[in-house]
Specification:
Six copies of one chain form a homohexamer.
Chain A: E1 2-14, E2 28-40, H1 52-64, E3 69-70, H2 84-99, H3 103-106, E4 108-118, E5 121-128
Helix pairs in contact in A: 1-2
Chain lengths: 132, 132, 132, 132, 132, 132
């Protein structure tokens, strides 16, 4: 299995209004560093997983919808908690939506997202694509 | 699959009394940086894998039993070699023991440990939990 | 010259209401990783710059006043912009205030703060202490 | 599953003569940091995956064949594109060839290679060894 | 003293045709990660050292002149060795030329460049600006 | 001012028998990552600060005297505390001794050592060389 990973950061404000989140219940913010991995069993004719410029473009577009936003007001998190885990899934799903209709996208076996919160903690989501 | 990783370091002294270990046969020491990942298919009601405070607390407790210790005298390594690989498994098993009897612990699919020895070498252990 | 550096992260929300800050004019958030360096010409009798536990304690206390806060409502930034540069100076000054009245604090030549914003940008402030 | 990873860098020159590669179509160069992971279900009698000195020796030998070379003139890439993905597979295969005829090599479940291109991009190849 | 650092990578091919450089005498390549620091005694009216977007723009422009190039054919290194140290000075001087005629540029005390060659080696150049 | 930095790690065992060191009073161990910087006002005729192979060789030799040793029994620390700060000075002095009698060594303005203890703490020593 081959993989290609691209990395990009974004900043958000949000609150996590559940008792379990302690001081994070109030409005605060975070910088997340997203590492998005594209997996594929065989390379394309250019001997790559996906075009790295296209991969960066997709990640940039997906993160532009989150960057500098207050996630408490973002439609994707209406009535939902925007935890790091939930954000990782949101990004993986959004990236998958964008690559679906390209030949390289059809060939992908999966998309993995790691969101680095701080040097001592990160969360991830692994999306397996079963296309046929 | 979702994941949450927490990181924490510890320092030990030990010896590796086998010819294969060359200069590491004598008593020496190491700083290890442990990255412990909790894997889970679905998030809990708070949209997280496990409470990060609880995860850090468990890791702190597991590592407190090793930190500043001479592993040659540690009961867990009596008659055993405390290689990085063996330490990784020890930590994964110890973390698994602690999370077993909580609802979030029961939901875990696995626990992965990476132990960074130095910038150019690390070892890991992947523990799959088949609970029913 | 000797130095000791300790590192700790914190999360804030804030806005930067000047045209120059583009999308950062709105309320958003950030994770900052603070690296605080204590400089000293000669070591103390324990052959250290300062006690690392005390250094971490001071940094924890200084950052507790910022962590999970909205800096737009923080008294230290009333009528001021809480840019990364200004935050670095605030932290250096606050750390200096805390160490002043200890013997090790009196011996310090300076305190440096680096605030890592994201993998591609950081700001710093160097505070020289001219004590006599 | 246990793992051991060793890391080593190398520098090459090459060109990627396809329209898809834009400015990388011309002769340019790169520093790659290779992380090679050896996976194994059970440890050997010394409680390790493989001897780390042997692992480093194999990686050094495999990379010596690439380091400071112009890959456009390297026999392994004759008529092929030396993309990061292709290089990752080349390294995994070459490492696998070298470990095959040792007892530890026979016990390996797989070899994974990650090639870091720059702080924001990396590629990988996962080689599963089905030995019997 | 305040500082702001921005980071950006670039890739080059070059040769170092002196006996001292061993295998690097032949044509090979490298990825360099440039960290460029702007130093200033007092912040501007926006409480920053320089606009980070402008800093990134200048660095992008300076590095575009080097990225994907064969430095053996670059006019700036005609008859000169393009060592990491020499490249660091070239970048510092080029950045200084671009910031000179802006109010923030006039206020700078210096520009520092660190060029990371690989995880185990880097070179730097410190440019003090004595403007009056 | 130009600089060149090389990095290399080593492992030691030691004790810090003063009350101030808490659990570190007992015999324990550490991995240190040493970053050694050579500073120089003007480059040599090869456009470098010092030969990087020679710099690595000196660092390797200096660290070989410490690596896998119990510093409690090392002559350099007889009756002295082997704190990170003291170790940083020991390494800077030992490197300076080795470079003194070469032309490049005579041209050095200083040698800086940073010793990374763990991801959250490091110590340093700056040695200015006033040669005439």
């Amino acid at each position: 299995m081959f993989s290609l990973t691209v990395r990009r950061h974004f900043m958000i404000a949000h609150s996590l209004p559940r008792e379990a989140f302690g001081p994070a219940q109030g409005l605060h913010g975070a910088t997340f560093v997203a590492e998005v991995t594209f997996r594929r069993a065989e390379l394309n004719d250019d001997a790559i997983v996906v075009d790295i410029g296209a991969a960066n473009g997709i990640l940039e577009e997906v993160l532009a919808d989150l960057n500098y936003k207050n996630l408490d007001e973002h439609p994707a998190f209406h009535g939902k908690l925007s935890t790091t885990e939930a954000l990782a899934k949101h990004i993986a799903d959004a990236v998958a939506d964008q690559v679906t209709d390209t030949p390289d996208g059809q060939a992908l076996a999966g998309i993995d997202v790691v969101l680095r919160e701080n040097p001592d903690a990160w969360a991830g989501y692994t999306l397996d694509l079963h296309r046929s």
